[in-house]
Fold this protein.
Amino acid sequence: MVVGEMIYDTDVVVIGGGPGGYTAAIHAADLGKDVVLVEEDDKLGGVCLTRGCIPSKTLIHVVNTANSVKEAQDMGIVYKEIGFDAKKLAAYIRSTVKDLSDGVARLVENRDIELVHGHARFIQPDQVYVDGANTIVRFKNAVIATGSRINELPVGLETGFDQGVWTSAQALEVPEIPESLLVIGGGYIGLEIGQAYAGLGSRVTLVEFSPQLLAAADKDLVQVVLRQCEKQFAAIYTDSRVTKITKQDQGFLVEMATKKGDITHTFSRVLAATGRKPDTEDLGLSALGIDMDDTGRIAVDEQCRTSLPHIFAVGDVVAGPALAHKAGRQGRVAAEVIAGKKSAYDNVSVPAVLFTSPEIAWTGLTETRAKEKKLAVNVGKFPLTALGRARSVDKTRGFVKILSDPDSEQILGMAIVGEHASELIAEGNLAIEMGACLEDLIVSIHPHPTFSESIMEAAETARTGSVHLMKKRR
């Protein structure tokens, strides 16, 4: 022991203060456990709250508010000019993040959870040392919830961040509204931030290595968003890659290899939205013999236990989608198992939401996956152009799609592209979790006029056809 070291003895140590970690810590405390929460950052909430989901959705909301006014001229709204104050916008995003992070801190304090700031590393199967706090925590159970971190730039571009290339976190701070912006990466992070900056007034170019943007989503969903991006962006390059970035006095000289040949262009700013990876390095896991795969993800069972049964892992560090709501659910499971309750992460589906324009959301079986597995499914699709509420607010881009079993009519999957997709998908997820069938959605009265009616209409389409769609003539 080093002189001056602090030592805690606790029932549970939770490493990481993001959605999975703080949920596990608070729930365990509510179940009567003594808890120590270790967080490396000076704020609680994790990447999602402090540098990802919350700041990005705040930015997107501001841009969408301005776009709604611009798009409503045909409705009779008259305006002279809409602009953005980057400093005020950045301050608003910071205040939103601070309010929510402070709220999590108050919840932790309310439960008498001991909060230790620093980097935790396992030194024994029942001990962690916290760098930066000179603290040892001796525990009966541990929950690893360290989340994910930004991927490095591709080989040959490693110095890009040092040159001033933005990370997604930096872009969400809105340090400026650049005249031109290159977005490297056509996943949801690149699309969300790219569309937001296009809405702020930047001339946005996007380059993606894969043949398709938003590779995880069904192509028919992506096509709706792609048509909007083609209106917003200066150029979109798929099957392409950045080969060199050179910092200049006025921006960045970027060389790209595209399907049409090599091109060189200068941009005011460059954003690298190249994804994230599990943050499991330098935790001392290999010394404990905890099983991990080649990507750094920790192997767990349905109770979120690792190969050491008193150590649990949740969220982005384990298999499955790297989503805050999945992490929160697993955090609850881990806390309940530690408290001796019967609990398991046995969810049938995890909804995915992309806050693009328009939004994309899906849950359960996708049509792409069904084709890959050669599964017979019945598909019902209802376009928003036929929905009264969508017409009344001029938000008709998109559709709702439901996949069901051809024999039992059990709902297997749902996908939505369009206004409020992020809010509507929960009904589909509940239907899948409870084993509902098309009849359940059809006979459940949905209020009129609302966007939620589109789900009922899609269920009708999957069975016999919606009364609000033209019947195909034989």
Notes: The radius of gyration is 24 Å.
